Amino acid sequence: MIVQACINGARSRDFHPQLPLTAEAMASDAAACVAAGAAELHIHPRGADGRESLAAVDAMVLAVRRACPGTLVGVSTGAWIESDVERTRAAIAAWRELPDYASVNLSEADAPHVMELLRQCGVGIEAGLATVADAGRFVALPGHDQVLRILIEIDIPDLSAALDEAHGIAAVLERAGVRRPILLHGVDATVWPFVKLAHQKRWSTRVGLEDGKTLADGTVAKDNAEIVAAAAAIFRSTPAD
Questions:
Q1: Fewer CB within 10 Å, N or C, the chain?
Q2: What is the pLDDT along the chain (241 residues), one digit of tens a residue?
Q3: Which CATH number fits domain 3-236: 3.20.20.70, 3.40.250.10, 3.40.120.10, 3.30.450.40?
């Protein structure tokens, strides 16, 4: 059970004044999150123009590792980042400062190829499952157990529907005998209910400005570290049975 910090994601610069968009800002923010209780980091590198870029992974990973030695660093491989299958594949193949892991969205058509490319590079895989259909596709893949962990990541604003989808995904994994670690997270209104559910299930979770900017009471957090500290406090308590 860990708390992972997702410090920026695809959010625009006007989402929060402390959103880190340069490698240096990401490194500083990451260090503050680790000090606040984050065990790992999930970061979306940005190019000089502030846009997400897989070509910016090397600079980000190098900066963050200097600031957070020994902390695992992960990135996204979301298809929207490069908006082209061949550019995505080429960018990953060109990485020299390899992240420890990368998330792959099973809803994306090229997910199996991206997963194989990451394996060839020696990068761990977080298999992102947003729907029951994603879970079904994942368990049908050869070697699906050769991943670092499963992300159950639900982007449904209605909490009841989001919980149903999360439980449905977990049921598919259980029926298939998948025994990889699970990290559960929500987005915006579902962030904190899912933190509490993950704690109850003894799964990992993630929090940060990628997923939402408020604390559990609805107030806007001052930065990523404050969000991480709140989640870490929940995870330090004894899970309810």
A1: C
A2: 999 999 999 999 999 999 999 999 999 999 999 999 999 999 999 999 999 999 999 999 999 999 999 999 999 999 999 999 999 999 999 999 999 999 999 999 999 999 999 999 999 999 999 999 999 999 999 989 999 999 999 999 999 999 999 999 999 999 999 999 999 999 999 999 999 999 999 999 999 999 999 999 999 999 999 999 999 999 998 765 4
A3: 3.20.20.70
Q: Which two tokens stand for residue 44?
A: 């979306």
Q: Which residue has the tokens 């193949």?
A: 93
The residues spanned by each domain of the chain are: 3-236
Find the length of the chain. 241
